[in-house]
Amino acid sequence: MFAIICPGRPVITSLHSINPTTFVQTLTLPVNHIVVFLLPDTHIPPTHAASVHIQFPNQPFRILGAISAAKPSAIFRVDAKALEGEVVVGVSIEEAGNVAWKVGEGAGVPGGKGKQVETVVLARRIITDAFNFLSSFASAADGSRGERGWEELVPLKAFRDWWVKFEKKIELDPGFLEREGED
């Protein structure tokens, strides 16, 4: 019913069935990305979707996302290259509403409305994050720290450092901007 691809490895087309709606597959680490997709001639009813989960060693399962008839494949960044051992990927067919709720935004899940953060709100959160980080580096043109009336200067390296830190935040938690504050 489902298949998994780890770049550089053979396609896995026979996931282990726990029951008619739940499938698992153990993957040997390191793994950077996985692709989960419906096999040809496999159909999920339009009222249902498949949630995709991952379990790292000694941790509970956590949701990666979903696939459905409307979105029959997805690529997930796993970033488990530094870990040793195995991870377990789980796929569970459920009602689309339940999957949309688990995923959060319901992207690619029929009937998944969920909350969507507006672009303007996301932009404000990004700028606020940058401003808060960069303001700690500000100094006046005469070398003093942030006196009023002077043009404040921030080294370009500080911006590069913020960018690296911001990208790392997104890599570790892609949804952190959606959860910031109550806008």
UniProtKB/TrEMBL annotation:
Which GO MF terms does the UniProt record name?
A: nuclear import signal receptor activity
One annotated GO biological process: protein import into nucleus
Question: What range(s) does the Hikeshi-like C-terminal domain occupy?
Answer: 118-179
InterPro entries reported in the protein's UniProt record:
Hikeshi-like_C, Hikeshi-like_N, OPI10
Entry's Gene Ontology cellular component terms: cytosol; nuclear envelope
The chain positions of domain Hikeshi-like N-terminal read 5-82
Entry's PANTHER family? HIKESHI FAMILY MEMBER, PROTEIN HIKESHI
What family does the entry list?
Answer: Belongs to the OPI10 family.
Which named protein is this?
(Perigord truffle) hypothetical protein
